[in-house]
Amino acid sequence: MDTPLVQIERQQFPILRKYLLINFLSPPHPHPLPPGERRKVRGNETENILNKHLNFLSAAIGNIIRNEVRSLVLILCLIAILFPFICAISISEGIKFQSLISVEEGADIYVTMDYFGSNAPISLDYLERLRKMDGVTKIFPRIVGRTYFVNRLATIVGVLPENIPKSIHLAQGVMFRERGEVVIGKGLAKEFHLQLGVRFSLSNNPSKIFRVAGIFDADATIWSANLILMSSEDASEFFKMEGKATDILIYTRPGYAPFLAKEIQEKMEASNPDQVEPPLRVQDKPLVRRYFQRGFNYKAGVFSALYTVAFALAIPALLIVSGFGQAERRKEIGVIKATGWQTQEVMEMVALENLVISLTSAPLAILLAMAWLKWFNGAFIAQFFIAEIGLMAPFPVPSRFLPLPCLFAFLFAIVLTMVGSLYSTWRIATVPPVEAMR
User: Which residues of the chain have pLDDT under 50?
Assistant: First the structure.
């Protein structure tokens, strides 16, 4: 039965009247329609089907506009659910991207000692032996450690001045030149009011006095916010481990790294047949890259799994919210059912309503996440992915908005709205119209 609301016009073709009773599962009629007439019929049928679904979409948009309070509440609920998810995933992708840039700009091979399967300090005696190997273009030791600056966890990096990357920029002062001079991160300088020339000591070795020679740029990487950069001699003296380094960084000619890493492992094992010393741990750039990707993917996966549980818990809430104005919706469905609508047509209209609401909510949540990360620097969210930064990060929080997480946000919105409304709509649509309109 045709419905006045949908207003579907069906065209009647006189040439088809004598074929209305044909069973098309039987052998072909001896006088089939001419090819031109068959194409015309198929084209009109396709147009009618398209018009029918467009009318359903128009009716769905009309319902959303007419029930503006219910629609607005539902959109706000979806934005509140999707916003933290989009922010967190974009921050995770931004940190991973920045970390991978650091890996690409770093050394080709990292050599440490292997203590119980973990990295351990390596003796500087290996420097000359590794420098003489074929394919090595640059080699130097690096010391990396952690300590507390009052109550703030800080990272100490000790390298020779000539080995400092050129990409490092300073906001104030100069790079360290003499013993005891350091360059500190913007976060430490801001929190503890450190200026150029200020002297300080650290709790691990209070007898060692440092002087601030420079301050990192605020727009540098997240790793420089709480960083203290000094010479390798000062770092080894501070940690009381003279003659050792955290690792030895090796730069090689293009294409030499895989073969050189294998050669280092084999030669050092051959020179230590009795295993008097622990073995070396040799890691090339592809291996380090995989470590970073695996770590960040694991962290983002854990967050996504926990947030999926939150989505599941949000479904009952959306059932209540989508039932806001349920009495009015019940009467509305009863009226259109009384005018001849079928249950599947009612379900299609509600599904299109959910589609429009999801297409509205997901982009708004993405825009809100972009604004939050740009203007508020990911406050209250970035701390879950970057340790020891507090509620407000003292540096620009990196973020990347990739297509796949945004698509997931839209799919989550669709699932939540469908689960929250289709079942209740089906229950109303299957009761007699008279009962539904009470």
Answer: 1-30
DSSP string, 287-315: HHHHHHHHHHHHHHHHHHHHHHHHHHHHH
One-character DSSP codes across 169-185: -EEEE----STTEEEE-
Helix or strand or coil: residue 275? Answer: coil
Please state, in angstroms and rounded to a whole number, the distance separating the CA atoms of residues 74 and 183: 51
Residue whose token pair is 């000062």: 234
Rounded-to-integer distance, Cα 134 and Cα 282, Å: 16
Cα dihedral across residues 51, 56, 59, 61: positive or negative: negative
- Per-residue pLDDT reduced to its tens digit, 132-167: 898 999 999 999 999 999 888 899 999 988 888 776
Closest CA to 113 of 232, 291, 275: 275
Residue with tokens 């955290």: 246
Burial class (CB in 10 A: 0-12, 13-18, 19+), 355: middle
Q: What is the CA radius of gyration of the chain?
A: 34
Residue 389's CB: how many other CB atoms inside 10 A?
20
